[in-house]
Amino acid sequence: MEGTSDSTPVVVEEAAKTKTSTVEGTVKSFDLGRRYGFITQDSSSKEVFVHQEAVLGEGSQNLATGDRVSFEVTEGPKGLRAASVRKL
Q: How would you classify residue 44: left for phi > 0, otherwise alpha for psi between -120 and 50, otherwise beta?
């Protein structure tokens, strides 16, 4: 064998996009069975995906259409995602 080289693959993980900001919005829809829905931001017309696990507060994990919420906007693998969601 001529020369040896380390052929172990190096996995380079791209840093997760963690751009966050706290905003307010209105729940556009929420499916209790599927445990996810969408929130429309007040500051723009962009919709943000929300999963029930992101909703904070005891007994308030069930969102309903029209609920006012505050949340952090993060960039997920498929687009904008809500985190730290609190009912107002």
A: beta
